[in-house]
Amino acid sequence: MTLRALAESTGADVLAYIPSPPRGVWYLGPFPLRAYAICIIIGIVAAIWLGDKRWVARGGESGAVLDIAMFAVPLGLIGGRLYHVATDWEKYFGPHRKPDAHWWAIWQGGLGIWGAVLLGAFGAWIGCRHYRIPLPAFGDAIAPGVLLAQAIGRLGNYFNQELFGRETTLPWGLEIFDRFDANGGSDPMNGVSNGVVVHVVQPTFLYELLWNLLGVAILLYVDRKFRIGHGRLFALYVAIYCFGRFFVELLRDDEATHIAGLRVNTFTSAIVFVCAVAYFLLATKGRETPAQVRAGVERPWPWQFGALRAYGAAGAAAAEPAIPGTDAAAKEPAAEKCGVDDSTDKTDSAAESESESADKAEPADEAEPAGKAEAAEEPEKVEVGKKSDTADKADSKGDS
Q1: 173 phi and psi, to 5 degrees?
Q2: Which tens digits make up the pLDDT trace of 93-102?
C-alpha cells in the first residue's frame, strides 16, 4: 500500500508525493509557450551572467562571455539534439517509429547534454580563436555557470514529465499523470492532465538538479581556495557531473537505448569521467595571470610542449610573491614565449620620455616671451626718437 493510499484510508497527515505539473505548454493565441524552453533560456542567461562576473574577476574584458556565447549556444543546441537522435535513432528511423516523430522537431523534447557540451565547447573554441582568448581559462570561468544552467534546465524535464526513474513508494516519489489534447487523444508532452495518477516514480530530475547545485558550490569553493586554472576547473566540472549522472542513470526507467543491459548514457558517463579526471591530474598546474587572459593573448596548443611549459611557468612566476633583490628582467623572456603582451609597458615608457622632453622644453618656452617683449619695446623707442626729431625741426622752422 502506498503512502497516499494509506493516508486516504486512515486520514493520517503524512508527507504526500510530489505532483507533476498539470501541463507544460501554454498558448498565447497560436503561439505555444513551453516551460522547457523557458527553463533553458533562463539557464543560458544565468550561465552568461555568472560567467561574465568570473571572467572579469580573472582579468578578462566584460562582455566577452556574451560574445563567445553567440558561437557556443547555437552549436550547443544542435549538438544536444544530434546526440539525442544518435542514441535514440529507433524513435525516428526504426521500424516502429511514430508517424509524427521527426528528428528535427526539437520542440517535441530530446536534448543530450553530452552533445550539447561537446559542440558547445567547439563553438566556444571558435569564438576564443576569433577574439584571441585562451580557451582553457575561459572554460574555467564559465564552468560553474554551465552547471547552474544544467540544474535550471532539469526543471524543464519536470514540466515535461520525462527522464523519470523507476516506480517507488518513497515519500518523495513523483506522480506522473496522463495528459490529453483538446480532442481527447493522449499527448504526454503538450496535453493537459486529467488528474489521474498513472505512476509514482523516482524523481531523477530532482536528484540531478540537487547534485548539480552541489557541484556549483564545490566548483566555486575549489576555485576560491586553490585558484586552479588551465582548464582544470572545467575538467572538474565534467567529472562532478559525470559522477552523479552515472548513478542517476541507474535509477532511470524511461525509454532509452541499452548496451549490454545498461543505458548508453551510463557508458558515456563513465568514459567521460575517466577522461576528465585524467586531464585534471595531468594538465598544467597553477593559474593564468590577468595578462594571459586578456584578449589578444593566445595560449599554445597542447602539443607545443615547450611553449606550453613556458606559458604555465610565466603564470606561476607571476603568482609568486616578489623577493627583494631579484632581477625582474630575468622573467621577461618567459613572458615573451607565452605571448604575453608588453605593449602597455612600452606605451608607459614612451609616455614618460615624452613628459620628460616636455619638462625640458618648458624653460625655453618661458624665456621666449621675455625676449619678444624686449624686442617689441625697441621699435617703440625708435619711433619716439623720430617723433622728437621732427618736432625739433618744426620748431626751428617756426623760429626762423
Answers
A1: -60, 155
A2: 877 777 777 7
